[in-house]
Amino acid sequence: MKEDVKKLAEMIAEEKGIDIDEVVEKIENKEKEYNGLISKEGAAHIVAKEAGIELIDEDSDSLDIENIVSGMNKATVVGKIERIFEPREFETDNGKGKVANIILRDETGSVRFSLWNEEVEKFIEEERVGVGDTIRIENGYVTEDNRDRPELRLGRSGELKEVDEEIDIEVGDDSYTGGFKRKNISKLAPGQSAEIRGTVVNIFSKSPFFKKCPECGERVEGEECEEHEEFEVNMVISAVVDDGTDSIRAVFFGEQAEDLVDVERNEAWEMTNEGKDMEEFSEKCNEILGKEVRVKGRVKMNDFFGRPEILVNSSERADAREEAKEILESL
Ligand SMILES: [Zn+2]
Fold first, then answer.
1. What is the CA(233)–ligand 1 centre distance, in A?
2. 238 and 310 in one domain?
3. Torsions phi, psi of 142, nearest 5?
4. Is residue 310 located within the same domain as residue 191?
């Protein structure tokens, strides 16, 4: 279950003093009732409404950022601007557009707030808001980004206001994005959790597979686990990411590898005839050469190479055009 739905279900269960499983069942029934027309989050909101619960307290001045979930309308949020990403232009069949992302933070967490087209011009390009400013978004709405995280937008009825009240949190050059400090690769040191953004300059996809036993979890060296006569395929891919200050090897395990090359592990296993014919898969991997990626992970020393490497927790393509197009198409 998605984090947002879980949070909503917990809120409902707590308010009504009933079991969380009961709430989840209600949500699932509601979703079925609407026959695919609404999301699980939407279903949760309806369940809450029917139970007489206001998930957004209309009287309260603003939401804590940690409580923001996708599907919310009329969200009022006060946060400090921690980071402003450079506005990016994109082109679709409907013409040209512009998008700029802001990371807003309060004492409880951070959220992506995206500005579109005229909003970008008005607030970012004319420098009406800047890093360190505290802003208030009234009547915004919350959608989700391409990794299922809440993303706040102004929409038609939303308003952005600068406020005098100070939020007492540090923001600055070292901006945090979800707890991972954005760093230049040249500044990375073992033991840190960090976010980097750079270009994929090399990718190692020759032997991405390893086998584990689903039963005992042991790594399988031969055909299958000797004891349980089973195996499952997993995947690991490394890539070299360069941000202009330096480069680093980034290691993508399992889902991260799948995300990176956009191929599911079993699909890859089949595509390569069980690892024997790597041509098509390598080509697929090479498609991300030269692409920009954002990577969050933990830096550790690779003793074999004597260099730090980053073990990836999450990554996303940083290609502005693709990203924006995806968002526009989903509207
Ligand atoms: Zn086993």
1. 13
2. yes
3. -120, 120
4. yes
